[in-house]
Amino acid sequence: MNVPVNISAQTQSRKADHIRICLEEDVQFRQTTNGFEKYRFTHCCLPEIDCDEINLSQTFLGKTLNAPLLISSMTGGTEQAGIINLRLAQVAQDYKIAMGVGSQRVAVEKPQVIDTFAIRKHAPDALLFANLGAVQLNYKYGLDQCLQIVDMLEADALILHLNPLQECIQPRGDKNFKGLLDKINILCSKLTVPVIAKEVGNGISQQMAQKLIAAGVKVIDVAGAGGTSWAKVEGERAETVLQRCLGRTFADWGLPTAECINSIRAIAPDIPLIASGGLRDGLDVAKAIALGANIAGLAMPFLRAAADSEAAVYDLASVLVAEITTVLFCTGNTTLASLQSSGSLQRLE
């Protein structure tokens, strides 16, 4: 596929802008939360278990993870992004957790930046997810490009991210979402790896999850509201008054993550489910698992740590594991499955 040089340059510049804005500006939701504050674990003062026997392992898409954690899709395509992905990949390998990369469209448009995504050599055993905006299926991308993206990462699955609000506000955004469900259906039937449908921070509704599952999507990543607002991010990048106004107006648009988990799990009890969107610590992760998610994804905490240093990423992973372990210990559970079935997470009135 021949892509004009100016388009690939714009895509690469956008990648750099996103990292800078997320690290330097206040782009968190103002009022909408992830919804987990509405829940509290019942404390068990006598757990009758040995903390050292707690097992956080979880099998997901055929691979066993040592903890139910996903380093959510963030970046790639620039020198800084390459350093960030390298640090994250090393932690994913050593802690045996899952990792996704940012949209690989830039690597298709500009093959010189493929190395910023090529992390399999640093994470040979990790569960890795490739990533592309679903809307690109309406902009000359198809099976060949998706296979190229999967191959460059040697990925275990392909994330198709859904971001209509972001595209509405983004300068020169791609806003033709017409007929995408049928194209996703065709792609799912032909691709050699499972397809994950993921929002980017505004949530997936129960109705939309049903349609995506019927189209052949194998995993849902709810990516709900409550964390980074991509409306605010794109508002910071605005080139016009209109874009700036849209970024402000829709800064709190979306479905809270906890609501997405509950509603989707109610109609799809067996679909592999990823909880992401505003998760900031291991307590959020544990609540997401207790509500019915299989694994939980965090982006901003890992981005900030990876932008700091390799040591900071390892420290973050260690803290997250310790926090999840503490929840299990203080609720009297030794496994994630027992946490889900224990009824120890209560909704506050």
TrEMBL record:
Subcellular location, record wording: Cytoplasm
Occurrences of domain FMN-dependent dehydrogenase (ranges): 12-104, 181-342
Family of the protein in this entry: Belongs to the IPP isomerase type 2 family.
Binding site residues for Mg(2+): E167
GO CC annotation: cytoplasm
Statement: the UniProt record of this protein carries the keyword Zinc-finger: no
Pfam families listed in its UniProt record: FMN_dh (PF01070)
SUPFAM superfamilies: FMN-linked oxidoreductases
Function: Involved in the biosynthesis of isoprenoids. Catalyzes the 1,3-allylic rearrangement of the homoallylic substrate isopentenyl (IPP) to its allylic isomer, dimethylallyl diphosphate (DMAPP).
Organism whose genome encodes this protein: Dulcicalothrix desertica PCC 7102
Subunit structure: Homooctamer. Dimer of tetramers.
Stretches of the chain forming a coiled coil according to its record: none
Cofactor: Mg(2+); NADPH; FMN
Primary localisation category: cytoplasm
EC number: 5.3.3.2
Protein residues bound to FMN: S72, S73, M74, T75, S103, N131, K198, T228, G278, L279, R280, A299, M300
GO MF: FMN binding; isopentenyl-diphosphate delta-isomerase activity; magnesium ion binding; NADPH binding; oxidoreductase activity
CDD domains: IDI-2_FMN
Protein name: Isopentenyl-diphosphate delta-isomerase
Keywords for the protein's UniProt record, in alphabetical order: Cytoplasm, Flavoprotein, FMN, Isomerase, Isoprene biosynthesis, Magnesium, Metal-binding, NADP
NCBIfam families, alphabetized: IPP_isom_2
Binding locations of substrate: R14, K15, S103, Q104, R105, Q166
Protein's UniProt keywords contain Chaperone: no
Catalysis: reaction(s): isopentenyl diphosphate = dimethylallyl diphosphate
